[in-house]
Structures are given as C-alpha cells and as structure tokens.
Amino acid sequence: MGEWAQCRSRKASSSHGWSAYGGQVLGAYYPQQDPSGSSSGSAVAVSIGLAFGSIATETSGSIVNPAERGNVVGIKPTLGLTSRDMVIPISLRQDTVGPIGRTVKDAAYMLSAIAGKDTFDNWTSTQPFDVVPDYVKACDFLGLKGARVGVPRNGIDYYLDSSTNPVMVAVEQALPTVRDAGARVIEEANFSSFDAPSFARNSSIVLDTDFVG
Fold first, then answer.
1. How far apart are CA 150 and CA 201, in angstroms?
2. 3-state class of 52 per DSSP?
3. Which of 69, 145, 181, 199 could lock 36 by a disulfide, CB 3.0 to 4.6 Å apart?
4. Strands 148-150 and 184-186: what pairing?
5. Cβ distance 44 to 35 under 8 Å?
6. Beta bridge partners of 74
7. Over 80: is that where the pLDDT of 212 sits?
C-alpha cells in the first residue's frame, strides 16, 4: 500500500505503490507502470497471480483505481458494511475496507466474508440486517434484473481525454450486456448541476478536515 495513502504529499501521485518498508511496487502490464493507489500492492498481487484475492482500503479511489489499472475487480463497500478496526485512518466519513479479486465472483466471496457488524467500529451498527447477504448468489446473468443504471453523460464527458477515452469505449460496449442482464439503462441521466472544480474542492475539504483535524 502506498505509505499514508498518498497523504504524504500534496502531489496526487506522490506515493503510488511506495512505502519505506516495501519499496516501490510497479504495475504488471508495461515497464515502470504506475500501479495507481493507494492499495497498489493489493491489486498488483492479484493481477500477477500471487493471490486469488486481497483486502484493500479506500478513502477516495484507492480500491477501484488500482484494480482498474491491474485489470482485476475491486469493490468499494458502502461505508459501514465492513469494519475499519485496526485500519490507519485518513477520513472517518470516507474510509472503507473492501476486496480485490480476479473475478466479480471472487470479490463477492470475499465481501461476504468480511462484511458484518463489529463493536469496534460503530458505523457498522447502521447495517439494516443481522445476517450478511450472500453476495455470491447475485453473480448470475440475471443478477441485475430490475436494476436501474444511470449514465450521467455530463459528468463523464468532463473527464474524457486521450487516456480515458479507451475506458469509455469499453463502457459503451458493456452497456448492451447490462441491458441483456435485465437492467434498465437510463441514458443521459445527467446531473442537474455539475461543477467539477467545486466537486473536487468540497471533497478535499471533508478529507482534509478529517485527516488534519
């Protein structure tokens, strides 16, 4: 894991995959690849086959970003679904623990194992169930039946550039599969007001208040 989850410096990529204990982790797909972070090692270990799954933590992108970079599956659980006991904190309001796996089903097995209430993390007491759902059962082709999936084009388009365009191509190719799985895809589910600089600034205010305070 990147030491202090990129909070060692104001530079966003200051410690992707670097720690004083383990040195620098690199991605598996080309020489000197930035593995993204901060759960860099968790994603790379699964990506190169050292483990079928791993545990990762996320404040803002630290599970899903390295998982995407390593071509594996990362799940960021809803805050309070998994315990954060013994996790070095960054933000009380954003930190969560989740799985990274080779496949969706692998990740679902792990999520079922680590979810649940814990007296050492009172945020887990908000869970609306006493028995953790079997997330693996949802891993079938009709698992999305009845779901509504919105595509907020105005929010997505702002972030498209030469590096992210290929990702959006893959998303467009996946949407028919999502429909075939029973979901209703709502095109142009745009934000009524989308101000990207304000969004980034407000998120940073919450994170910095938790981390520094």
1. 24
2. coil
3. 69
4. parallel
5. yes
6. 100
7. no
Cα 101 from Cα 54, distance rounded (Å): 7
Strands (E), the chain: 18-19, 23-24, 53-58, 73-74, 96-101, 148-150, 184-186
Quick check: 13 pLDDT over 70? no
| pLDDT confidence band for 35 (50 / 70 / 90) | very high
Helix ranges, 119-195 (H): 153-157, 165-180
Of 109, 117, 120, 113, nearest in space to 52 by CA: 109
**Contact at 8 Å (CB) between 145 and 183?**
yes
Q: What's the pLDDT score for residue 3? A: 72
Determine the Cα–Cα distance for residues 204 and 194; give it in Å rounded to an integer. 17
Mean pLDDT, residues 24-41:
92
Going by C-alpha positions, the residue among 39, 11, 12, 8 that lies closest to residue 25 is 39
Alpha helices (runs of H) in 115-195, residue ranges in sequence order: 153-157, 165-180
Percent of the chain with pLDDT over 70: 96
Q: Residue 182's CB: how many other CB atoms inside 10 A?
A: 13
Decide if 43 contacts 35 (C-beta within 8 A). Answer: yes
Question: Can you read off the two tokens belonging to residue 149?
Answer: 């999936």
Tell me the per-residue pLDDT of 178-199, one tens digit each, with 9 for 90 and over: 999 999 999 999 999 888 888 8
Residue 143 one-letter amino acid: G
